[in-house]
Amino acid sequence: MPFIRSISGLRATIGDGLSPHLIAAYTTAFANTVKGKKIVLGRDGRPSGKWVEDIVRGTLIACGCEVRLIGVAPTPTVQLEVEHSDASGGIVITASHNPGEWNGLKFINSDGVFLDEVENKILWDLVDNLSFKLPDMKYFPDHLHDHDALHRHIKKIRRISSIANNLDSIKSKEFKVVVDAVNSSGSNIVPELLRSFDCEVIDLFCDGSGLFPHTPEPLPENLTDLAETVKAVRADIGIAVDPDADRLVLIDETGKAIGEEKTIALAVESTIMHSTHIGSIVVNLSTSSMSEMTAAKYGFKTFRAPVGEINVVKKMKEVGAVIGGEGSGGVILPECHYGRDSLVGIGLILNLMSIKNKKLSELSDDLPKLEMLKLKKKYTGCINELRDIIAKKYENHQITLLDGIRVDFADGTWFQLRTSNTEPIVRVIAESPTSGRAEQLANEIMNLI
């Protein structure tokens, strides 16, 4: 009965872990924490999302909430709708990149961002202690269907200053693009955004059924059909998003996945290359140094935050960062909204290709040359014991304990050990400018585990 709750929300397997009782309990607790009674509700394309939506909607109405249903929509669409309206909060029914037998809930506060550590603790305590309440009401609000949220999202992206100022140039390229939305929430909005840029779009897995044609996490090994199609039709770029479309992975014109870490670095460059003011960016502690080195090229400072979108967002707000993100392919642009958004990333990447008049493979080759290795392993032991062993072993180097443990070496090499927010595993990430060094370090830590 897999069940995970973290700063990234609630996830469980349908049929056992994700019960109607559990859904109703967390939804009621959330309704008890919001300061208003207007909630935006969206879901990714999973078939189970339909019955989960019925429970969430009914529970919210029982709590006296006015529910605005936007149907199948990316997580960032719900976030944007909350941030730029009088909504009190939002709920997204999704298990993000987890397989099809999973589903879950992501909770969004009135600022359009995920609940932070303090807000989550309040929510969890209400559920664990069964201390939430239903109001005594004679009349209940209804739900409203909103069919324009996706169009508003697209318009918002087209109005991003760097994109709006170069829109004619982007259109003139008439990019040929293949899209793999794993038949989920990006199935309509991603192709529609691309066509608004005058792209020729080949919809690969965009039927909106929620039936995943492959493992939904957008990793290179899961994107072979996309890569082959890009080569077969001689496309300029291949685009893959996860089920709730907050992560973006790119395939270059040769059919090669450039790596989700490069998504962030290229989006950073697209945003800051013509900036008239020197500022800062924020990435998490697991993100490649490519973004930091790219930012430094333009005089921008990089700050780091623990993994988790809300952690990055809070740091961005604190330092006034112009862009941020996570190395899993999540681009955060405050000018649009404070949330990871694959559609924002798509606009920024096409804009960069247009401005520099370069193929995606050429832009990828221009980035700093670093070797990164990401490993994971199921682990139920005490992470603190591992952390202490590693801290002792590498005590003569720079150690950061904000998220698991990260060790930085003088030559730019680093590694990190941390538990996952979304799976019962530990992750080991290592990066180095020296060939073989990242693999050596990652294997050392895996052996300790």
Low-confidence stretches: none
What count of helical segments does DSSP give? 16
Number of strands: 20
Structural class: alpha/beta
Largest sheet composition = 7 strands, mixed
**What's the overall average pLDDT, rounded?**
95
Beta content comes to 15-25%
Shape: globular
Major β-sheet strand ordering: 1-2-6-5-3-4-7
Give the fraction of residues assigned to helices: 25-40%
Give a description of the structure.
There is one protein chain. The chain is an alpha/beta fold. The protein has three domains: 3-149, Alpha-D-Glucose-1,6-Bisphosphate, subunit A, domain 3 (Alpha-D-Glucose-1,6-Bisphosphate, Chain A, domain 3, 3-Layer(aba) Sandwich); 172-366, Alpha-D-Glucose-1,6-Bisphosphate, Chain A, domain 3, CATH 3.40.120; 371-448, 2-Layer Sandwich (TATA-Binding Protein). The protein is 38% helix and 23% strand. The protein is built from 16 helices and 20 strands. The protein has helices at 20-33, 48-62, 75-83, 117-128, 149-158, 161-164, 167-173, 186-196, 224-233, 260-272, 289-297, 309-319, 342-356, 360-366, 383-393, 437-448; strands at 3-6, 9-13, 38-43, 66-72, 89-93, 102-108, 143-145, 176-180, 200-205, 237-241, 248-251, 280-284, 301-305, 323-326, 330-332, 371-378, 398-400, 405-408, 414-419, 425-432. A seven-stranded mixed β-sheet has the order 1-2-6-5-3-4-7, with helices on both faces. Strands 16-20-19-18-17 form a five-stranded antiparallel β-sheet, with helices on one face. α8 links the parallel β8 and β9. α10 (260-272) runs parallel beside α11 and α10 (260-272) crosses α13. The longest helix has 15 residues, at 48-62. The radius of gyration is 21 Å and the shape is globular. The chain starts with a strand and ends with a helix. The model has no long low-confidence stretch (mean pLDDT 95).
